Amino acid sequence: MQAIFLAIIGLSSIFIGYRFYSKFIAEKIYQLDPNFETPAHSMRDDVDYVPTNRVVLWGHHFTAVAGAAPIIGPAIAVIWGWLPAFLWVTIGTMFFAGVHDFGAVWASVRNRAKSVGSLTGDVVSPRARNLFMVVVFFLLMMVNAVFGVAISTEFQATPSSVIPAWTAVVVAIGIGILIYRMHIPILWPTVAGTIILYAVIYLGELVPISLADGTLGLPAGAQWIIILFVYAGIASLLPVWLLLQPRDYINGIQLFVGLGLLYGAVMIANPTVVAPTINPNVPASAPPIIPLLFVTIACGAISGFHGLVGSGTTSKQLNKETDARFVGYLGSVGEGALALVAIIAATAGFASLGEWEEMYSEFGNGGVGAFVSGGATIVSRGVGISYEFAATLLTVMAVLFAGTTMDAGVRLQRYIIQEWGSIYNIPVLQNGYVATLAAVTSCLILAFGAGGPSGEGGMLIWPLFGTTNQLLAGLTLLVISVMLVKLGRPARYTLIPMIFITGMALAAALLQLSTLYSAGRWALLGIDVVIVLLAIFTGLEATSAFMRERKASTAGANA
Amino acid sequence: MDKICTYFGRFKELLEEFYVSPYRGAVARARRDEDDLFMLFVFGELMGVPNPATYYTLELQPLLLERFHDWHRRQGFEHSPLDGFRCC
């Protein structure tokens, strides 16, 4: 099988999904109205609520949702063979992610741009809103821990990426100061920043940096994890304009460059997929494909995190309601395209089946490592740059995505802790420094609790992270479905994905209970127990909300 | 050539928008926090907070008068905290 066919079939499928299925959903189910006054107009304040060009809005929605997760998940999941991952990414994007992301934007726009969290309180029940907050906190804790571990692993595997990755922080701060403080128009800082960013990749190759094992009695991996969290803690306290905003912007550029480079290289080099269609020799450490495939690939097929973005900033800036289809559905198409190229890199970037099987000898061994190694082979063959340069470039891309998510994730965790401090009247938690310390400590406990003193086994958190992410997606789909029932429209297009994804998340969480218990991973087992309880409560809330709505509509019909 | 300039100008606008739009609210709040701190420097002396630069900040008071009402409300004072400065 040539990789070019995978790329063409995959991309065509998700574009067909956009062209036809999203049109059907927009016209018949969400019934978008071009004359509806969106919150960007009705509540316009030129700060949060501003009508924005739909291409720009799509750009930042897409770059906000696409990060390291659609790379890591698919690159782990191909352990079961390329076909299951390919099918779940394409079908998931068409019928799950697209409807979910598009629906989150639509539901929020129809409710004064409220977040899905508040909508859960309004539409389902106040209990469900609390459930939502807990799920979000767990999700952030896990994403920070797992990305910390992933970056640490990559810094050790590709020491040439250390200097370029940290230089990106300096470049971002430089851009932030030039634009915010010195009011320089954006074009020149962008050009200069991009040139510096790619030029230091050469420097990284010349000066690779590795930490020595044993400093402060810690292995190198653990040292990197601690350094990363100290950085994330400090970064999350800095003003948004100084680091987060320019860093996000650089990432956006990197994403477009990286996607173009990878797809271009696939088209030119046209490598052969060496991984089996369905792997008959799955390693003993790998869990069963059903339900684990559906939580291992979360972002790239469906991800609850997108609902937070869609109902956070995107819905406040939507110019016309009909733009929701372009921004929401096409945003998930973009992420599906990234997941697809990650599958191609992790299955077609190896010289032989033996080499591929060596990489996938254990569950969780793939991930960023497989993406970088496979992707670099394809890029070096397609574009004609050296393998080492391509590997550093792709590592830096993945590390920057993961690092920015950590910055934003620790910041959001701090907000939630501060809010809890204010709700439960605990003044000490309302302090920004204390809340940040609590956030960082919780992530470190999780990273080392899961991965042992070296943090090496930390990727075990991945399926649990995916499970929580899918539960969040289930909650968002529940809100959309209840809204549709209230409006008297067919809810099956969101209800079936909701039942499927919540069911898979619950099954995955239950299955991992026994795996984690027999492996003696007590920290993760504790978290898994909480996830099982959250999944059960999500199911109960969903049933109760639907029974209530059905009763209300029957009463309405009788009256 | 004119067409190219127009397209280039439009591209710069979109790039600017791409940079600004996700963080417009957060940056506006950060800017307001800085302005609030500056207001405290300017009006602090009137509330009994010693300020060695009063000689200079005094000159700025008339210029910041229009912002005074919003500022004291944001700081949690329903009415003006200053005797000689009754805006509401």
In short:
The complex is a heterodimer of chains A (559) and B (88). Helix content of chain A is 75%, strand content 0%.
What does this protein structure show overall?
The complex is a heterodimer of chains A (559) and B (88). By secondary structure, chain A is an all-alpha fold. Chain A has one domain (115-274, 298-313, 342-558). Chain A contains 22 helices and no strands. In chain A, helix 11 crosses helix 14 (323-348). The radius of gyration of chain A is 23 Å and the shape is globular. Chain A starts with a helix and ends with a helix. The model of chain A has no long low-confidence stretch (mean pLDDT 91). Chain B has 3 helices and no strands. At the A-B interface, helix 3 and helix 11 of A face helix 1 and helix 2 of B.
Question: What is the rounded distance between the termini of chain B?
Answer: 58 Å
Radius of gyration of chain B over alpha carbons? 20 Å
Q: Specify the number of helices of chain A.
A: 22
Q: Could you give the order of the helices and strands of chain B?
A: HHH
Level of helix content of chain B? 55-70%
Question: In which range does the helix fraction of chain A lie?
Answer: over 70%
Largest interface: A-B, 29 and 16 residues
Topology:
The complex is a heterodimer of chains A (559) and B (88).
Chain A lengths: L2 H27 L9 H4 L11 H12 L3 H9 L4 H28 L6 H9 L1 H32 L4 H20 L5 H20 L13 H18 L6 H26 L19 H8 L8 H6 L12 H26 L4 H7 L7 H17 L3 H37 L3 H4 L1 H20 L9 H26 L5 H28 L2 H37 L1
Helix pairs in contact in A: 1-5, 1-14, 3-11, 3-14, 4-14, 4-16, 5-14, 5-20, 6-7, 6-20, 7-10, 7-17, 7-19, 7-20, 7-22, 8-9, 8-11, 8-17, 9-17, 10-17, 10-19, 11-14, 11-16, 11-17, 12-20, 12-21, 14-16, 16-17, 17-19, 20-21, 20-22, 21-22
Chain B lengths: L1 H19 L3 H20 L10 H21 L14
Helix pairs in contact in B: 2-3
